[in-house]
Amino acid sequence: MRKVRLAAWIFLAFIGVIAILPDFFSPYSPSHQYRDFPYAPPGRYHGASVHWFVHGEPYRWLGLVPASVRLFGSPEPGRLFVLGTDEFGRDAFSRLCHGASVSLLLAPMAALLSIALAVVFGAWAGMCRGVVDVCVTRISEAFVVLPWFYVVVALRAALPLSLGGPTAVLIVFALLAALGCATPSRLFRGLVLSLAHREFVLAARATGASRSRVLSRHILPFLWPAIRTQLLMSIPVFIITEVTLSFLGLGVADPMPTWGGMLVPLQQYVVLTSYPWMWMPAVAIVSVCLALQIVARESGDPSSVLSTPASWQANYAESAPIRMNGAQ
Prior knowledge:
Blueprint: H1 2-20, H2 22-25, E1 43-45, E2 51-61, E3 65-73, E4 79-81, H3 92-128, H4 130-145, H5 148-158, H6 165-179, H7 182-195, H8 199-206, H9 211-247, H10 259-262, H11 269-274, H12 280-299, H13 310-324
Antiparallel strand pairs: 1-4, 2-3
Helix pairs in contact: 1-3, 1-12, 3-4, 3-6, 3-7, 3-9, 4-7, 5-6, 7-9, 8-9, 8-13, 9-12
């Protein structure tokens, strides 16, 4: 099992590098059309030969540094299509690499924002209790009851479909982050309420530690396993949601490549049955989500933070009077 987890981490690291540097790994521009090769199967054309570290169409490293070196390519007039082409003759492998930048960079950022909001609201409710706890709990319950995916679809459909690519991406993932924090916030609220009654927390309060100091020094360290697990479990949800929105035409508009947008031609039965290489975005999506599930299971059950080692609790309890002596 350890080897499987290691392989999952290596795969995710490799895909992450491609998402950060898509132009370097893709032999062609994702929007360049070769009209003579619609739905061309994977292979080499016009006597193409594979050359490594070749100069191709110019681009910018990380959007800043001008460059033209690509990992591999073929001299003109050869054409090298690793995963074939789409209906416009665009290289599917190049579009797959660039689509990873949207799905695998912005989805984790949205998940991170969602978990951060969940920690803030959950810890706030668990520490303050009273009116604050009731308000946060009731609002989160309202969002949990609502089918938030359909809410995202409705809100996105209400916005103009002519929005630019970056604007549409930011709006979609902002909606996902805001609506997706309801369920984790309830989890963190429950964990904070449970930890607030532990002996080492009560000892810190008895020495005069402020609420913010107790939260930052004695409670948040125990929440990190749950935060890590929730983050890894949330990323596949955000990826699938973005893919679904793009597939329905409510996500990032063409020509900006996304994995969901690349699956749109599969709505046609002819494409679905006759061009199997068009399934590669789906294979990539399933592979990434499966790898994320494997590494998320490595972190364990989020509720395991409640059964913390006795030695750790003892160290906190013994050192609390020393650290908190005179704290306000």
